[in-house]
Amino acid sequence: MTDGDGKTRSFDPGLLRGLSGKVLALTIIFVMLGEVLIFLPSIANFRIQWLKGRVAQAEIAALAAEAAPDRILSSDLRTEILKGAGVLVVSLTRGDKRQLILRSEGDHMIDASYDLRSGTWLSAIVDAFTTMLATEPRVLGIIDVPPNMSGDIIEIALFEEPLRKAMLGYGINILILSIILSIIVAGLVFTALNVTLVRPMKRLTRNMLAFRQNPEDHSRIIVPSERSDEIGLAERELHDMQSELASMLQQKSRLAALGLAASKVNHDLRNMLSSAHLISDRLAMVEDPTVKRFAPKLIGSLDRAIDFLSQTLKFGRAQEAPPLRERLTLRAIADDVIEGAVVQASSRVVLFNQVPAELLIDADREHLNRVLTNLLRNSIQAIETLQNDTPDAREGHVTVKSWREGSVVTIEVRDNGPGIPERVRPKLFEAFQSAQRSGGVGLGLAICSELIRAHGGEIRLFSTGSDGTVFRIAVPDTVAELKAGRRGERQRNLAR
Ligand SMILES: Nc1ncnc2c1ncn2[C@@H]1O[C@H](COP(=O)(O)OP(=O)(O)OP(=O)(O)O)[C@@H](O)[C@H]1O
Ligand SMILES: [Mg+2]
Q1: Residue 496, C-beta contacts closer than 8 angstroms, at least 6 positions apart
Q2: How far apart (Å, rounded) are the C-alpha atoms in residues 386 and 380?
Q3: Ligand 1 atom closest to Cα of residue 429
Q4: End-to-end C-alpha distance for the chain, whole angstroms
Q5: pLDDT per residue over 431-451, tens digit each?
Q6: Which residue from 434, 446, 225, 224 is spatially nearest to 319, judged by alpha carbons?
Q7: Where are the alpha helices (H) located in 316-406, listed in sequence order?
Q8: Does the N-terminal or the C-terminal CB of the chain have fewer CB atoms within 10 Å?
Q9: pLDDT at residue 482 above 50?
Q10: CATH 3.30.565.10 fits 322-495, yes or no
């Protein structure tokens, strides 16, 4: 698979660079280290026990020698006894009397002397290594307490070589044992870690790589296991993250597709409207009073539609053009909108314009027109739906009112329709979220809200219920206008 830079990222990192290889190597190293730590004290202990064995044998030999009649031994017997005990010299100290009990023939210089009664672990380890690494045959002198209490101190002399051989044999045994043990333990630890950690990690990694290739594919979302540990948590978190991402991406592509469709509709609709415009121009020349009355309105509507589509194309799909504000007579605009809406409404819906004739609003004519059209259309549609469902329903009334408080103009659109369904209310002003009736896109109120906010104003659902719905729009004058207005007022006041 490829990453952002277009480089290929392979999943299999090889045994040595992968988690498995690392786990295996580390296990072997740590088991070996453990074995070494155990080996050091055990070899030191082996040496001490071996020497103590010799001391015990030497003591028995000494006791045997002392038991001989007149304590006189033949040279052969003495050699035999010393050989059996594996020592060269044995002497015993009783109280302050030191007595040489047995002594082999020939002179032996003592090369190193060790006192088994005292000594630390560290010195024992050092002594053990001195013995194992000795290059020349040495004679050792050993001092200890006689194990059978035949005296206070026993001193013996012996060749070091048999000790060294025994220690090397022991060391080699331990080494072989260590290797076997490391292989078994490393194998067990490796298998255990592989099952509990490495394999789930590999599953996670594999899943991430696969998901990344196509994040919109819901079937690639990881199915979390039942584990309660950190890996289980990671799997569940990844699952949630992938689910959210997948739905977000799906929504995004839906919106993108919709945007493209809107642009196409926009583009070609403009052409169609232009030809409709040309035809209505011709229509305006017909000498019929009805045609004369409606043709200018038709042309005006088409003009506005073409203008609107061009603006939308120019500013892109998502954003409205900034409002071009001017002082407008709201009553006239409401009349226009109502007249347009009446044409579409059934005869059982009556629209009222209760906007005071002198009320001026500081707004974009086109935007205001669109906002009111959307609100009136919603009201009419709601009332008509009710009337279709229950034929004996009351006559529909939609009223537009307005008043000014300081620099803020409030417009109210009130109907006696069925009210807004409860589940639509929370996201009423969000695009595509509120479509309730069939054929509705759910854009009308979102557009109203956006247009009014661009004026620094606010649209809100004032009340809704089974007796009808009231929307209120507050549009403040622009700040510059406000100041000019106040200045104008002050001048007027001064002039009075
Ligand atoms: N006056 C009203 N009375 C009852 N329900 C309303 C009223 N105004 C809006 N609604 C409800 O709010 C929903 C959202 O309205 P909105 O104008 O945003 O979208 P729409 O009318 O469904 O679609 P569009 O206006 O984009 O064609 C409507 O579908 C309707 O259910
Ligand atoms: Mg609508």
Answers
A1: none
A2: 10
A3: 18
A4: 83
A5: 776 656 666 677 889 889 989
A6: 446
A7: 330-344, 365-389
A8: C
A9: no
A10: yes
For residues 354-383, one letter each, b for 16 or more C-beta atoms within 10 angstroms of the residue's C-beta and e for the rest, the string is ebeeebbbbbbbbbbbbbbbbbbbbbbbbb
User: Ligand 2 centre from 301 Cα, in Å?
Assistant: 19
- Ion ligand 2: residues, CB < 5 A: 378, 444
pLDDT score, position 272: 78
Ligand 2 centre from 408 Cα, in Å? 25
Q: Which residue has a Cα nearest atom 9 of ligand 1?
A: 378
Q: Show me where the domains of the chain are located.
A: 19-186, 322-495
Q: How far is the CA of 447 from the centre of ligand 2 (A)?
A: 9
Q: How many CB atoms lie within 10 A of CB 298?
A: 17
> What's the rounded Cα separation, in Å, for the pair 116 and 118?
5
Question: CB under 6 Å to ligand 1: residues?
Answer: 374, 378-379, 382, 415, 417, 419-421, 424, 428, 434-437, 440-446, 469
- 30-79 pLDDT, tens digit per residue, is 888 888 888 899 999 999 999 999 999 999 988 888 887 776 778 788 88
